Give the backbone structure.
Amino acid sequence: MSSARNNKPVRKAVFPVAGLGTRFLPATKVLPKEILPLNDRPVIQHSWEEARAAGIEEFIFVSHPRKDILQKHFEAQPDLEKILEAGNKKEWLAAVRESTLPAEKLHVTYQPEPLGLGHAVWCAKGLVGDEPFAVILPDDVFIADKPCLAQMADIYNECGGNIVAVMEVAREETARYGVVDIKKDSGHLVDIKGLVEKPKPENAPSTLAVLGRYILQPEIFEHLEKGEKGAGGEIQLTDAMAKLIGVQPFHGYRFSGARYDCGTRAGFLEASIAFAMSDPEMKEEAESILKKIIDKNRTAA
Ligand code: G1P
């Protein structure tokens, strides 16, 4: 992520992936939910590709020892490559190699206890060091002409400071998100004066929700360090971010594109359909499969 205005470049991204995906049991009994496929690639690869497209050079997984297969996905697989090479399967070989990262680019640390998103990010402190960084929550996936984090990188080059992706949600949904208190709304860019984690609809300062893409300054760690508990008794990233407002530039960015929530079964299904439909190789088949199932169910009803 280059920087046009002397803002320190964002070179590292933190992926909090320690959650055990209990909503997806039994699918996640052995497999991490981030390894489940969305169309032709695992969820984690979608977010990794997004980070890479934004110029991120180092990838930090805050994980759980049960989920080591996640980093394995980004390691070379010589046996498999040999077989594909021997069979002259060039396309598949390229697909396997595309997601192979040199060891020094991928760092894994563990979150010893599920103490909240803020705590997960804090666990990456030593690996991030004293520089701005991105946080990517792989549950949130995007379909966009320009990937969401790359759009945010452009804004970062202009504004510096801290930037969060935001989206309008229905008022009855505010308790699922961090919600923005708006100082000045300029369309794509929103100047933020406050942030509240998971407010009840009647208490929400707006219906503008924070999504799982952040560009943050390292000073966030000073606030996370304190380990103060917030909504749900957890150490919340939102609360630490709120402390930076007024001290550093803090903007919300209404991205262009569509976002899907892979954190729920319904959202995962929606994302699967959307990704298949956005793939020229799959679009027609996906449409006809959906139509067939809907027609069949109608006839049966
Ligand atoms: C997290 C954040 C929340 C944010 C959301 C976006 O919540 O705490 O502020 O709005 O991600 O998906 P979670 O979904 O982990 O409960």
About this structure: The chain has a mean pLDDT of 95. The pocket of 1-O-phosphono-alpha-D-glucopyranose is lined by residues 117, 137, 140, 177-178, 197, 209-212, 237-238, 263 (CB under 6 Å).
